[in-house]
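Problem: given the chain below (79 residues), write out its structure.
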Amino acid sequence: MFKRKKKSGQVTIEITNMNDMKQLISEAQSLMYQLENELNFYKEHKNKLQSLTTRLDKKVKEVNNFKFKAKFMLVKEEE
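Solution.
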């Protein structure tokens, strides 16, 4: 087997595209906030739609179960 020689010294790493990463994170956060707002909007309107649908269903049942009441009156003719 070969043995590697250990090199000693200080290493400096410079990230050259950090601004690009910050820009991507900023865009991702913006999209996340937009998504959260749209989700809240959707939930609010979904609840309203469910409520209106339930109310409409009840009214349709009332209409379907509606029973007409009638009175028959005999009109006497005068001679």
